[in-house]
Amino acid sequence: MSARNAFYAQSGGVTAVINASACGVIETARRHTDRIANVYAGRYGIIGALTEDLIDTSQESDESIAALRYTPAGAFGSCRYKLKSLEASKREYERLIEIFKAHDIGYFFYNGGGDSADTCYKISQLSEKLGYPVQAIHIPKTVDNDLPITDNCPGFGSVAKYIATSTLEASFDVRSMSKTSTKVFVLEVMGRHAGWIAAAGGLVEDHAIPVMILFPEIEFDQERFIAAVKDKVERFDFCTIVISEGAKYPDGRFLAEQGTRDAFGHAQLGGAAPVVANMIKDATGYKFHWAVADYLQRAARHLASKTDVEQAYAVGRAGVEFALAGHNAVMPMIKRLSNDPYAWEVGEAPLSEVANVEKFMPREFISADGFGITSACKEYLIPLIQGEDYPPFERGLPKYVTLKNLPVARKLAPFEL
Amino acid sequence: MSARNAFYAQSGGVTAVINASACGVIETARRHTDRIANVYAGRYGIIGALTEDLIDTSQESDESIAALRYTPAGAFGSCRYKLKSLEASKREYERLIEIFKAHDIGYFFYNGGGDSADTCYKISQLSEKLGYPVQAIHIPKTVDNDLPITDNCPGFGSVAKYIATSTLEASFDVRSMSKTSTKVFVLEVMGRHAGWIAAAGGLVEDHAIPVMILFPEIEFDQERFIAAVKDKVERFDFCTIVISEGAKYPDGRFLAEQGTRDAFGHAQLGGAAPVVANMIKDATGYKFHWAVADYLQRAARHLASKTDVEQAYAVGRAGVEFALAGHNAVMPMIKRLSNDPYAWEVGEAPLSEVANVEKFMPREFISADGFGITSACKEYLIPLIQGEDYPPFERGLPKYVTLKNLPVARKLAPFEL
After folding, report:
1. Residue of B nearest to A388 (CA)
2. Same domain, yes or no, for B161 and B112?
3. Considering only alpha carbons, which residue of chain B is nearest residue A391?
4. Confidence of residue A256 (pLDDT cuts 50, 70, 90)
5. How many angstroms separate the CA of residue B324 from the nearest CA in chain A?
6. Could you report the per-residue pLDDT of B222-255, keeping only the tens digit for each?
7. pLDDT by residue (tens digit) across B48-60?
8. Is B208 exposed, middle or buried (0-12, 13-18, 19+ CB in 10 A)?
9. Do B246 and B275 lie in a common domain?
């Protein structure tokens, strides 16, 4: 069997460790040049494939590729560009197959969340239908931790560690100041539909911090919430609140609705923290501070979870190994073997079962009052934030790599997106 | 000379390293028990002295005191409670002297910013006037870096490192996403009057990031600002903006004015980032994300600057050494000896020159267009963020200490604040 090329693309919101998966893919491919001649990366994700804007990763040194392991965000660029059904996006899917043919691409590695799992699955179906053989492998990535089957998603452990650490640190600050100043601190975190990231804030409860979580999964009840905040402040003198950007009123309105939507039709959120902080101030008069972590949380490679980095690398490597073993339409997944000591291995999930399924917080991970996490949830979360994996620093700042990202020569006519 | 007790208090907004100064004070005092019998700490700062709510630090183990070096926020509690002139706050000042007498306190260590330097100075004056000998030493602390005479303030280097790192990481994220999604990222940072913290964001320019800074020292000119943002985005496809909470319109209004004021009469700020982000969206249509770092930045001990930790400890230790040498009404300060390699030593400043002087960014540290920092500013900042000093971690989270904070028995009648 002669060597064919691979295509790798990053999709959707980036994470602190998606480049560690890229590193796993490229380093593993480089050990099998008899089977994988070169890895082409899509510049800005799948758009790079559609527009034939391919990056020649063979132009990057081994050192640069190794540095991806500790560099956050998407080294090749990502995009929010959703391919729809095979019928509705026929033109795009067929263009992809044309590009693969033109560049002798036999392996498609798509690194993303639920939407890209769906795209990846469709490409495998189309490749079969059109008789052009491409092995389509989905590499899981999402800070939201909302993919099914896999125990957890690479990217989540690091943002969870960042949010738990930041919640702990800010809570120590509020505790110091509570006598005359701030009594309530509100931290807004990511998580449109699933409260996994917000749940990580609940881990500080074991550090004697009175903390309340507002999950997207639990309808927001203003009266019960204010009463619970007052109770905490009366008992502890202060209270920390971690709110998911996706927290909703019973009628479905987001607390933070801004009215804009992204390319996938998802509402663009932001600003739930000041809404809740002012609500508390109005009801109780407590002084407050609030923070919105936004990109800081998912880009915080300086505080990545070692477990997460290892898993991100492992799913990248496994993706290539599955492809070399002839598998198609699959996703490497994380299987938890035990909690304490934590043990895990990489398994394999069929994409037909991954695509378009969203995994929410199970109700038994949320405390009875809806404002906290249970010990089952803590047992789930703690292994995922284990270990530190600091990047190298130079002149006081992390020494992250920026690749050359040289283009592959075009062979086809331009394509209008 | 028989041993007398010392009083130590934390004042104003806490930092990632104010406890490192506490550690320097207490560890040094413990090496001189012939002169300093015990260190009493004020519970919630100077309020603890006024209300005779003293903490007996001798009840804390050496290990716990050593752990203060890597624990953020104020371990004994802090407060925002400003003593005014000797006449206007006569009752409070006299009460402090009574407390000192009752508990045989001969050393007063006040760890704070400009307001507490002023209080400390007044106590030294009053002690002289009333004939009760107290050596009053101010230990500098402020994330705002706005104290005069000292080259920099302990607390600032760590927040600068955090903001520069976070700006770098989030900028990598935006750069990844800019093709179809976010083009402008706005990060709001602390700094009411002085733009030192915002300036730290400018350090990412040397990492090929198009960054703009909005300083409190430069009047905000909306038209020029929008034009500059458009220019950056047209040239680089994205742009990062770091805005100081104290950024102001030419008429003096804060971009983020919320209308509330703290105990010192300072306007309480927050929310400049969404104001600026929406302004850009309206003028250009660019997609944006914004973050407000708030307490996360000043509590982020996990990313402290090693230089800052060492200096914070050193000024605590020097404060005790100055006191033991018989000095009064002074502040240990940082003297910069050279930039590269960076060298510094602890000097001594008279409080008469420190109190009530605020140090702003010099104009020659701000670029000609007002939106960036100069190489002189970079030369100043870079040494201050040098080195990492990670806290120990346990089960995925930093292992910070919470002290027992046992009370000293009261001897006087209650005092109404």
Report:
1. B396
2. no
3. B388
4. confident
5. 29
6. 999 999 999 999 999 999 999 999 999 999 999 9
7. 999 999 999 999 9
8. exposed
9. yes
Note the ipTM here: 0.96
Q: Which residues from chain B sit within 8 angstroms of residue A382, using beta carbons?
A: 395-396
Active-site residue among A115, A118, A144, A146? A144
CB contact under 8 A, A208 and B271: no
Number of domain units in chain B: 2
List chain B residues with CB under 8 Å of A300.
Answer: 166, 169
Q: What is the pLDDT of residue A264?
A: 56
Whole-model pTM: value is 0.96
Return the amino acid letter for B57: T
Judged by CB atoms closer than 8 Å, whether chains meet at B398 and A174 is answered as: no
Question: In B, which residues are within 8 Å of A263 by CB distance?
Answer: 180-181
CB distance A168 to A242 below 8 Å? no
CATH number (domain holding residue B239) = 3.40.50.460
Distances (CA, A) of B340 to A197, A395, B154, B200: 42, 11, 20, 18
pLDDT of the residue at A93: 94
Residue A59, burial from CB neighbour count under 10 angstroms (0-12, 13-18, 19+): middle
Report pLDDT for B265.
56
- Single out the residue in B267, B301, B335 at which a domain terminates: B301
Q: What type of residue is A348?
A: E
Residues A197, A316: one domain? no
| Host domain of residue B171 | 156-301
Query: Which chain B residue is nearest to residue A304, measuring alpha carbons?
Result: B396
B187 touches chain A (CB under 8 A): yes
Would you call B144 a catalytic residue per the annotation?
A: yes
Contact B72 A263 (CB under 8 A): no
B194 plus B96 within the same structural domain: no
Query: Can you read off the two tokens belonging to residue B183?
Result: 């083009």
Which residues of chain A lie closer than 8 angstroms to B296, CB-CB?
Answer: 166, 169-170, 187, 291, 293, 296
Contact in structure between B200 and B385 (CB atoms under 8 Å): yes
